[in-house]
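Try this one yourself first.
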């Protein structure tokens, strides 16, 4: 962004001003000819000209599309802001829409002038699109994409020079904020997963698709107070930019979600992303072999995003934990990886989080008691959230979203009583609710399902439990894990002791 001065008062007043200044200087020159030596005359006249020449009254800010090889945030914010409040005199626009994008993307197609006002200041924007004779290739630092530039685009923002401070210190920051809000409203949340780019040996790229997960806080069956605490915590986090800066902390927040399979951990992550409109980076650690690779992939994640590491107890092995993990976990996978949990945590706590803003990190586990203490120590994960088996309140919510049956229906209280004391997951009950279209049959199905389950255990008739990823686990071993979880769950229903207010 460059600020330039130009003298642009009305033509008549410029003429009048110059005429009187010139006459005055000529008079002085005549006097000087008689009084002052010739060498000193030049110096004095130069001083006088500078002093009396008219001052610049207009300032122009130039905002180019690119700043070197990076894209210019101010340019993109100005484009978003100005296109969001198009005036009828804008003559030509570019409209596009990618499949699945919810709304149209609008850009200027040719040079345009747009007027705006801010706090008493009249502002004039000019969009300029200059064709280039020669195309040039640049690599976008933000996206690593190769861009072919055949045109130069920039905005010029002109205003009376007396409003210079107002424009730089309040108008442009306001436009950055407005653009952020407009983009957030329109934003399609993306899910990024790691892919190994064949063309760059051992380098990783994030592949992205639109996040189609429809989970929201409204559809999530959880204790209402717990849900509210999470929503409040997210709200507080995103509005506390200044707070984090003031106390010298990286603007990041960590959540540990723990609980049995099918209780909604992944659904909660999707609900968080949909609520905040933050992209998700799903980091599958088994794909990463070294600490250095991990750093590279983390540094390629964007701000306002959620980094998710699922099943952290299974994917990060510490040497001393290998034996125990091999003995009693279904998900132990031998690996030759040269990175460590402490490497991951140090990087997340240190460099990575300090070079970005609004970062959320979520770890999930089915076995909180198997986690390394380094992950659980105070200050590491800000909030520990227990995703529990289904409760009567949770069932009411499922009945309302799946069947449109409300809480005052007498059949719900019967089901609520059956649910108390039984370890059934929301996923299991949701499956029952999906079996038929008819409300009565669905509720009968849930009642039969619940009656078939004995209190507080997960007996199934086949003696085996099929877990995620198709791995079969002995029922006895699984129940041993569940039993431990029940004890842990009772203690740590929800731990928000480290939540800073
Ligand atoms: N709390 C919940 N509220 C609403 N639906 C839920 C909830 N928990 C689970 N479900 C339903 O069950 C499905 C599976 O849940 P989800 O994948 O979120 O569980 P999870 O805890 O992540 O399981 P895992 O530990 O196996 O990864 C969801 O798609 C959703 O339909
Ligand atoms: Mg999951």
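Now uncover the answer:
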């Amino acid at each position: 962004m460059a600020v330039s001065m130009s003298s642009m008062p009305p033509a008549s007043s410029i003429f009048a001003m110059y005429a009187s200044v010139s006459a005055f200087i000529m008079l002085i020159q005549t006097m000087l000819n008689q009084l002052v030596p010739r060498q000193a005359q030049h110096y004095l006249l130069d001083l006088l000209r500078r002093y009396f020449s008219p001052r610049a009254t207009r300032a122009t800010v130039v905002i180019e599309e690119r700043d070197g090889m990076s894209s210019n945030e101010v340019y993109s914010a100005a484009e978003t802001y100005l296109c969001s409040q198009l005036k009828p005199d804008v003559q030509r626009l570019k409209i596009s829409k990618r499949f699945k994008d919810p709304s149209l993307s609008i850009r200027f197609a040719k040079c345009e002038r747009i007027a705006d006002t801010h706090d008493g200041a009249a502002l004039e924007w000019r969009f300029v699109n200059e064709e280039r004779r020669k195309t040039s290739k640049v690599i976008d630092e933000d996206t690593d994409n190769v861009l072919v530039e055949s045109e130069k685009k920039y905005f010029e923002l002109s205003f009376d020079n007396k409003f210079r401070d107002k424009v730089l210190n309040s108008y442009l920051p306001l436009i950055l904020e407005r653009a952020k809000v407009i983009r957030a409203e329109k934003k399609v949340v993306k899910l990024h997963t790691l892919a190994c780019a064949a063309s760059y040996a051992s380098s990783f790229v994030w592949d992205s698709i639109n996040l189609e997960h429809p989970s929201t806080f409204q559809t999530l069956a959880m204790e209402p107070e717990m849900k509210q605490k999470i929503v409040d915590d997210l709200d507080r986090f995103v509005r506390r930019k200044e707070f984090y800066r003031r106390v010298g902390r990286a603007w990041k927040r960590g959540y540990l979600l723990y609980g049995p399979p099918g209780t909604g951990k992944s659904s909660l992550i999707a609900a968080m992303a949909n609520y905040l409109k933050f992209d998700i980076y799903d980091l599958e650690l088994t794909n990463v072999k070294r600490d250095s690779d991990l750093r590279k992939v983390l540094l390629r994640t964007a701000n306002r995003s959620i980094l998710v590491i699922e099943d952290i107890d299974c994917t990060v092995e510490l040497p001393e934990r290998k034996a125990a993990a091999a003995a009693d976990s279904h998900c132990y996978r031998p690996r030759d990886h040269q990175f460590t949990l402490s490497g991951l945590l140090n990087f997340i706590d240190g460099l990575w989080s300090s070079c970005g803003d609004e970062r959320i990190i979520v770890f999930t586990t089915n076995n909180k008691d198997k986690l390394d203490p380094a992950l659980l120590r105070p200050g590491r994960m800000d909030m520990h959230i227990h995703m529990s088996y289904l409760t009567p309140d949770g069932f009411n919510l499922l009945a309302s979203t799946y069947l449109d049956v409300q809480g005052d229906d007498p059949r719900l209280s019967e089901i609520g009583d059956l649910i108390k004391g039984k370890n059934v997951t929301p996923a299991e009950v949701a499956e029952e609710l999906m079996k038929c279209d008819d409300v009565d049959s669905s509720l009968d199905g849930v009642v039969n399902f619940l009656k078939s389950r004995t209190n507080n255990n997960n007996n199934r008739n086949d003696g085996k439990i099929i877990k995620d990823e198709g791995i079969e686990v002995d029922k006895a071993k699984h129940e041993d894990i569940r039993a431990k979880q029940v004890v842990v769950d009772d203690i740590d229903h929800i731990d928000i002791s480290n939540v800073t207010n």
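Discussion: The two ends are 38 Å apart (CA to CA). Residues 4-12, 318-335, 457-501 have pLDDT under 50 and may be disordered.
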